[in-house]
# Entry
Amino acid sequence: MSQKTRNPPSVRYPAQRSLALGSVLLAFALLGAAVMTVWAFQGTGLHWPSISFAGLGWAAAVLAVLHFWWYQFTGHIRWNGQAWSLDVSAQDSTAYLLDRPPEVFIDLQTHLFLRTVPVGRRPVWLWLERSSAPERWLALRRAVYSRAVVHTDSASGGAPANRHGA
# Structure
């Protein structure tokens, strides 16, 4: 008796810059500033070259985190039953096919931090929140955690057959 595998249903989920993630990153930046201040006044004996160097390192880290947060991908992540893609916008038909399923980096049940790799592009990190589309949240989680077979097209060198989603 053969066992039939079932892929999760299609789902299209919004991805956008998250205020919750921004708040957490801001809290870490402020905590870092507080720790550096305590260190400067208690640990260095006010050795200004060390304090200046540490301050520049902190400022560079904060700018990198701000850049990461500000330039978060905006659009949709889509599972069409056969392949994953990132849709840039509803008005534009641009979609980037993912060369493998999204990887879960952090799962907080109501928030997912995913790493995706569009074909021929650098990785895209997505912070997804249940509150963005609560009615589709469980479908997204099922798709992300499924071991669905991704159908490939041998003529395209093993790339998934559908390039632009459903």
Q: What stands out?
A: Residues 30 and 62 are 10 Å apart (CA to CA).
